[in-house]
Amino acid sequence: MARAFSPKIVTANHLLEGDVIYQTADDRWSRHISEAELITDEAHAQLRLLDASRQANVIVGAYLADAVSGDNGPEPTHFREDFRRTGPSNYVHGKQETSTQPRA
Amino acid sequence: MYRYSEFDTAFLAERNAQFRAQVERRIDGSLTEDEFKPLRLMNGLYLQLHAYMLRVAIPYGTLNSAQMRQLALLAEKWDKGYGHFTTRQNIQYNWPKLNDVPDMLDALAEVGMHAIQTSGNTIRNVTADHFAGAAADEVADPRPYAELLRQWSTDHPEFQFMPRKFKIAITGSENDRAVIKAHDIGLQLVERDGVLGAKVIVGGGLGRTPMIGKTLNEFIAFDDLLAYLEATVSVWNQIGRRDNKYKARIKITVHEHGIDDIRARVDERYAQVRPQFKGVDMALLDEIKTHFALPTFREASVATFEGAYTNDPVFRSWVDTNIAPHKNADHAIVTISIKKHGNTPGDATAEQMRVMADLAQEFGYDELRISHEQNVILPHVHKSDLPAIHARLKEHELATANIGLISDIIACPGMDYCALATARSIPVAETIATRFDELKLEHDIGHLKIKISGCINACGHHHVGHIGILGLDRAGVENYQITLGGDGSENASIGERAGPGFSYDEIVPAIERLVFAYLDLRDNADETFLQTYRRLGLAPFKAALYPEAQADAA
């Protein structure tokens, strides 16, 4: 019997900002994992990854990451993806920043 | 300090203009990421977990105040107000945006700095003893030769697409502060019959297959050294394995062929290469040496220093841990700790960088150094200025007296930033430092080097830590392996794995048990952790780390 397909999301980094982004069902790129399209079918996952890879002028390094359905949309299953959706643990930088930090 | 010639300046300007155009072509879609990636890496630009990262070379760890101020400017203008000093004497900016990077590189060029060859399969930034030029124990200042190596290796046509990266470290002292035995090539300056040359060590490295370098040649005179090094890199470039990136480094080539075979091949290649070197390199070296002439050390009384040392215990503690002997008896080498307890090892804010630049300009003959241990050094300071320097450092959280102690931890960025990491390093370092500060045991424990890597690539040098910590991903959970007895000095050794790893919550208590075991086991307060470990071996430390296993066996 084939192994059950574990649900996936398509994630990448933004070409200019480098920020972590997620592919949505309506073909946008969101900064928030909660807006990501949770893909439960393997063939569809491959297709969506291809869709992402074609957008080389917007994104870098698209890949499929494991995720599960949570109260607020998809959630990561691995701690690496948990850091990617949050930011580093030594400063409140990255997606934890509530507003853009002042830059001199 | 080396000052750029017109050639250097023109070269850098052209290179930066090329990269600016490459970035534009990437953004307008003319270049794919596959095409662009090797180009950005050649210019020090990585893509990490949350953002791009720009790695700027600080050649042989030497800076002047203007350069340090420019690093502060980059941190403030294009990053989040800080920079991270690394174990390869580089500085990394964790948050640049792609279209800002060409401006950052132009700003660096204004002060003769660049990010060239801080990545990719090239000869990387040449690192050196951070006390070079000031250390009381050195044969000669290794930096002129390091600068010659920088010029030789930059854009060297034969060495741009090698099997893998190649790292060279150089020291002028028998006491090795540059970890030369853990580099692809390590050079130790040696004088023989009045002629200056180097002992050449090859095939050291950490990473997934740690190796201590082997002696390729006991002495090569400066006259012949560049040709000899070119021959060595050339031999590896030809026979180094390109089929498997994990077997590509020269340490594997040396291991597979044996040092004698490699030496014979180098000698053969050297015979071909030597005639091509017609002495231009030596003329250049002589010219470079003039840039590194020692400052004229001022003469003054050291009475104020002695008074402060006697009367101020906080100052005395700082002097005892952070000051090293200088060539000139009235001067001292100051190591500024950027490892305040609980902070990220190696991170300095723009403001702190400016403070250190000001101190260098006012008191330090305008010189600064970055150490591979992620601290900043004022190499030449008259002792009478130490109280004033200490007072200024205190105002900016830079006066932590912990050099060489348990909280002076090397830690790689780990999974807080790095795309290759398998676990976090920084919070482990922060928690260990905070814990031992609370226990007030740090000075009692004495000399102890903890080094933490967040993956097997070992940027945090864990293999040569007296206590090494390696963060791994075990079945989707962070897990930390401990190695003991590593040493990055002239008596280099690779640490021994202590046993099964510990979870994120267990690792700091495990380190605490280990250190308390050492305090019980040591012969006397002067016996260091490493000495105790070498005397007693793994067993008693293992017993402290795994008390349950002991109970089960009983």
UniProtKB/TrEMBL annotation, chain A:
Quick one: where's region Disordered?
Answer: 70-104
UniProt xrefs under Pfam families: DUF2849
> At the top level of its lineage, which domain of life is listed?
Bacteria
Name-wise, this protein is Uncharacterized protein
What organism is listed for this UniProt entry?
Answer: Falsiruegeria mediterranea M17
Identify the taxonomic lineage of the organism of origin: Bacteria, Pseudomonadati, Pseudomonadota, Alphaproteobacteria, Rhodobacterales
Automatic annotation (TrEMBL), chain B:
The alphabetized UniProt keywords are: 4Fe-4S, Heme, Iron, Iron-sulfur, Metal-binding, Oxidoreductase
Q: What is its EC number?
A: 1.8.7.1
Domain Nitrite/sulphite reductase 4Fe-4S residue range list: 119-271, 408-545
The Nitrite/Sulfite reductase ferredoxin-like domain is annotated at: 52-111, 345-395
Which InterPro entries does the annotation name?
NIR_SIR_4Fe-4S (IPR051329), NiRdtase/SiRdtase_haem-b_fer (IPR005117), Nit/Sulf_reduc_fer-like_dom_sf (IPR036136), NO2/SO3_Rdtase_4Fe4S_dom (IPR006067), NO2/SO3_Rdtase_4Fe4S_sf (IPR045854)
User: What GO molecular function terms would the record report?
Assistant: 4 iron, 4 sulfur cluster binding; heme binding; metal ion binding; sulfite reductase (ferredoxin) activity
For the keyword Signal, the answer is no
What EC class is this?
A: oxidoreductase
| SUPFAM superfamilies per UniProt | Nitrite and sulphite reductase 4Fe-4S domain-like, Nitrite/Sulfite reductase N-terminal domain-like
Protein name according to UniProt: Sulfite reductase [ferredoxin]
Species source reads Falsiruegeria mediterranea M17
The gene from which this protein is expressed is sir
